[in-house]
Amino acid sequence: MNIITDTHAPTSSGSDLPPLVTDRPPRVLIAGAGLGGLFLGILLEKAGIPYEIFERSAEPRPLGKLTPYTSNKPEGLHTPNILPAFEQLGLLDELMAFSKPARIATLYTDKLKVIGDAVPASADVIGYDRILFTRPELHDLLFKQIPSEKMHMSKKIVSFEHDNDGITLAFGDNSTARGDILVGADGAHSGVRKHLHEFLDKQGLLPNSDSMKIPRGYISLLGTTDALDPAKYPGVLKEDSESYYVIGDKDTPYTWVTFCVPGNRICWNVIIQLGVTDVADEQFKTSDWVPQQNKKMMDSIRHLKTPYGILGDLFDATQLDRVSKVYFEDMLFDTWNHGRTVLIGDGNGAGAVNAMQDAVILANHLYDIKPTSFENIEQALNDYKEDRFDAIKDQYPLSHMSAKLIYGHTLLERIFRYIIFNWMPKSIQMKQIEMSTAYRPQANFLPQAPRRGTLETTPQKPSKRIQNEDEEAKKRAAAAF
Question: Where are the transmembrane segments (predicted)?
Fold first, then answer.
């Protein structure tokens, strides 16, 4: 969802009236119906917090169709960090129904010479398998959980304005919406973030790091085949997802990935690093991201080899309107909130798993707002950033390193890849996996998911509201005697 907001600043209107204080929970307006926005909506539904979701597109993304605003990463949850929250929400079984475990991934050169296997993460230790699925099916699962009256399509936000008592959104169709908090869950090129940063920059409040140009990232071309013939592709019948990473040499600066999902299908993903090849840079400059342009790019890489044959064979089994070319970038922003506005997910430079983790932590802090007042809202949003930022900051170098390891094609990145796969002990790699999977936040206001695996997980801050209510209950019980 691109939001254009250049007519109102996200500040108080300057009213002399005192800010409103009420016992009702805050009303939350969510910009964007991507994974982060939908996950937050589901959590707020469970918490009894009123909310509405506003999506600029005219209708829900059709199942199976990938578009630039719904996908900016390969499909799948390569870490189990969000699965306890799915379990809390009663959605884990449905998620697993269209997923396959990904216990082993094999890396190849573009000549199909084995580089090695990625270190498997044991479910006995981690508690959950890594899983792979098509992202549109996850989007569809989450979308179905939102009551229809709380989902508003064709709602392009053109401005928003804060005052003492709340925030007002204005849409392109001349309608408005009123709430207490605006959540920008509108993707990597967040319009809410853009407007917030522009306002803070004018006030001299924007950190220099947030005004820097975003580094060049990658272009990803991805799709999912129709059902394939198991006689030709026997791997589609395996319980475990057959996952392959093929990394090109200096003359072939691509990485292409394939993995199997239920329904005898194969997901494929071709990643091109910007700034390394003219083909990639030309594709990035092309503003017309339509099937015809995707086909042009696909035709140029049909010959690339996979363990199944050439990529062209998979392209031919994929409907062209279910192919997406997306651009993803890599930057961690310092500014996440101001006043009544807060950002989650790609608006903070994070991907799908982090977007849903953002939603969990934010929902916890929104639940703690009582009574509802501007002061308590601002404190809750500050607490969310403080609670979440260190975890993201710790994960960011590992995520950045992982991308360079698999997708990077500069000389230094090739040397780095050689060192990791040839010299780094497996025990160290396993230690890094355990560190990255120990952080798995859950909703404080729901029964906790059972502990799985032997890994010690990162302790979570308890709910201030629940603690206060427990203390009040104890005082009342003591006074009764």
Answer: none
The answer for residues whose C-beta is within 8 angstroms of residue 57's C-beta and 6 or more apart is: 1, 33, 69, 153, 154
For helices 278-285 and 291-300, give the axis angle rounded to 10 degrees: 180
Assign 111 to helix, strand or coil: coil
With b for 16 or more beta-carbon neighbours within 10 A and e for fewer, the 265-290 pattern comes to bbbbbbbbbbebbeebeebbeeeeee
Please provide the average confidence, as pLDDT, over all residues in the chain. 83
What is the bridge-based pairing of β-strands 28-31 and 243-247?
Answer: unpaired
Q: Which residues touch 167 (CB under 8 Å, ≥6 apart)?
A: 10, 29, 160, 161, 178, 179, 180, 181, 182, 340, 341
Of 383, 378, 393, the closest CA to residue 361 belongs to: 383
The predicted pLDDT at position 448 comes to 95
CA distance 415 to 35: 35
Distance CA 225, CA 232 (A): 14
**pLDDT tens digits, one per residue of 348-377:** 445 688 899 999 999 999 999 999 999 999
Q: 340: closest CA among 159, 157, 167, 158?
A: 167
Assess contact for 21 and 1: CB atoms under 8 A: no
Q: What's the CA gap between 356 and 177, in Å, rounded? A: 25
Interatomic CA distance for residues 309 and 322, integer angstroms: 21
C-beta separation of 112 from 66 below 8 A? no
In angstroms, the CA 282 to CA 93 distance is 43
Residue 334 banded pLDDT, cuts 50, 70, 90 = confident
For residue 22, the 8-state DSSP code is B
| Dihedral (CA of 162, 163, 167, 168) sign | negative
| CA 255 – CA 245 distance, rounded (Å) | 7
β-partners of residue 105 are 243
